[in-house]
Amino acid sequence: MAAKGLDSGQASNQLMEQMRVNVRSLNEECGIFGVWGRSDAAQLTYYGLHALQHRGQEGAGIVSNQDGHLWQERGLGLLSDVFRNPARIEALSGHSAIGHVRYATAGSHGIENIQPMMANFQDMQMALAHNGNLTNASSLRQELEDTGAIFQSSSDSEILLHLIRHSKATRFIDQLKEALNRVRGGFAYLLLTPYGMFAALDPHAFRPFVVGQMPDGQYVVTSETAALDVVGAKFLRDVQPGELISIDDTGMTIDHYTTQTTLNIDAMEYIYFARPDSTIYGVNVHQARKRMGAALAKEQPVPHADIIVGVPNSSLSAAAGFAQATGLPNEMGLIKNQYIARTFIEPTQDKRERAVRMKLSAVKEVICGKNVVLVDDSIVRGTTSMYIVRMLKEAGAKSVHVRIASPVFKLPSFYGIDMQTTKELLGAQHTIPEMREKIEADSLGFLSVDALVKAIDLPYDGAGTGLTTAYFDGHYPSPVYDYESSLSELIKSGQVDFEPEPTTTYHPRQVATLRQQAIADDGTIHFDTKTNQGVEI
Fold it and tell me: In what residue span(s) does the Glutamine amidotransferase type-2 domain sit (predicted)?
């Protein structure tokens, strides 16, 4: 029966969306990549985005700059689907380009939200790619609409374009700085104009953002170091909070739109989102995850366990750490079909479970008769965990003990992860014993927040830990503005608190891996010969 006020088609779409929500895992907003000064800029951007496909699988796009004119190609689906026709890349000739892969949040799946977004103003063109989520987007959008702004999308990314255009400053760089000081939340921005490429990171550095350099000297800016490796670029530096970097034919200029900054890297980048071969602020993601697994084995041991099995692919590093710490065999008990990126979910339990089985299958010969420790990176809704536990038991496992290499995910994220209500979170609604029962495991254990921070081992000596762990402990490193009302009950009960926006300046020297880095006028970094990867020895 159709919902009240909806026709059958609308009701069906709502139901399909809810089913999609019930089975999906955590999803990050997107990955971004940009290069200036390459004749093959669009092709290089395609390769870079391919390395970032894990950060967004709903849509992709590239904008190129050809002699001061911007050209755009974008579409829904995987990067390889959008650019399946080689003519689409060939149409993007020019010496610079920015690109974007996107995960769409609920209700925003249209082509109009696929980035990079492009604006054709009377006096110039501009393209924008954004990774993150603005916490004051609703208020800003209302303010802009009240003054006559007309939005073409439902994405918060478009807001920055309107703010730039509404600025009364005369120079573009000043307009951009003014706009960046109006937005709040998590953001890594790449902007392309006829005359330059601009990169800006939020004052907390929630999202990863790095600068690299091609062998011939051209600069690359992207979400993860793994994308630099794919295109053959040398890592130069992490973009720092509050920085505004300008790249044009004269080189790279490092400036700031604000000096009131802190360091609060999203811990979920290390836990789940980033590729294991990426490095964030000097910490390799694979090694951090191995340390999480080892710490988990110490905090949540499983007596009489026979084998360790990691859930592919993001949990394999943690499983290796758990196995190494216990001396137990690390077995490939689950196989992931690498050719299944997304699954069309239909609203029946049988088909939802079949969707998981299309992605994962158990190796019966490995599992049968064993007491299995199943290592995963997180539990969000628990639906997928339940299906995997069932799968292992059907394969003959004597028992299945689930160990999660992160703390209980029990509070919303507002800085770029698609998880903005507690209703979706199993850990917010149930105790650990209740969660164990729901996923049908023989036992269930999580990593503590303190152990997580120690495992990531960010070499930071400033205020706090340098990490955002709000989803686990309720300590948000900044106000959440438009979202605060949704947390009113949690605020009253003392489960949630917020730090004010920073009033002091974080300095890169507060991170040991950056302490011996000398930033030259051209933005490059020169390591001191008496250090090992930038760390004093």
Answer: 30-250
Mode of pairing for the β-strands spanning 371-376 and 360-362: unpaired
Question: Could you tell me the CA-to-CA distances from 399 to 137, 333, 379 in Å, in that order?
Answer: 47, 14, 19
Task: Provide the annotated binding site for Mg(2+).
Answer: 314, 376-377
Among 198, 229, 262, identify where a domain stops. Answer: 262
Tokens standing for residue 233: 């670029």
My answer on whether 51 and 167 are in the same domain is: yes
Last residue of a domain, one of 202, 232, 262: 262
Judged by DSSP in three states, 418 sits in coil
Look up 368 and say whether it is catalytic.
Answer: no
Q: In the structure, what pLDDT confidence band is assigned to residue 352 with cuts at 50, 70 and 90?
A: low
Kindly report the CATH number assigned to the domain that includes residue 380: 3.40.50.2020
**pTM score:** 0.89
Instruction: Tell me the Cα Rg of the chain.
Output: 23
Instruction: Give the domain extent around 252.
Output: 31-262
CA angle 468, 52, 383 (to 5 degrees): 65
pLDDT at 234 over 50: yes
Which candidate in 24, 26, 28, 30 is catalytic?
A: 30
